[in-house]
Amino acid sequence: DAGVIQSPRHEVTEMGQEVTLRCKPISGHDYLFWYRQTMMRGLELLIYFNNNVPIDDSGMPEDRFSAKMPNASFSTLKIQPSEPRDSAVYFCASVDRGSGNTIYFGEGSWLTVV
Amino acid sequence: GQSLEQPSEVTAVEGAIVQINCTYQTSGFYGLSWYQQHDGGAPTFLSYNALDGLEETGRFSSFLSRSDSYGYLLLQELQMKDSASYFCAVEDAGKSTFGDGTTLTVKP
User: Fold this and answer.
1) Any chain A CB within 8 A of the CB of B76?
2) Strand B9-13 and strand B102-107: pairing?
3) In chain B, what residues touch A45 (CB-CB under 8 Å)?
4) pLDDT tens digits for A16-56?
């Protein structure tokens, strides 16, 4: 398997624009996580899905953030409108809880909002 | 909710042994994981403890005491390539919450 695939790898956008981050989890994995990483706040869990259903979105910082998982092989994290404080690395990760607890991370989407 | 505490920085020399501690307070607990992250990279899995005791994987070992809500990662025979950030993470009914990470610097 190719691992967790995220796109775009890097994005620079202007404040107020909509940003959509995409993730393809590892096939067969039943959990998908979106994390945000910054120097100040560390690795924060934003939302996670189990079998495509959102289970806990308490980490989503504001209504400007939304996430969907329309099927087992695709998820999006959307920020609308974006703000400079949203600049961070956004990681998508997946795990097959039935096989163990190893979480596999994508390479991250590096977002800069100017 | 969950809260995890680990030291922010640790420095050691090549060939030495270093221990990175993690204490946690959680509403639920299934196990404790450890991840390594190099600058600019993604976190990668190192180990997982669900039961009390020591788990050994090569130069790395991880320990858990559920009664003390405490665990540690032990790195032996340190190499320069071990310079990275190390995160403990609490696993709870599907949810994984990470600590703030410990930056390990290995010096020659």
Assistant:
1) no
2) parallel
3) 95-98
4) 999 999 999 999 999 999 999 998 888 999 999 999 999 99
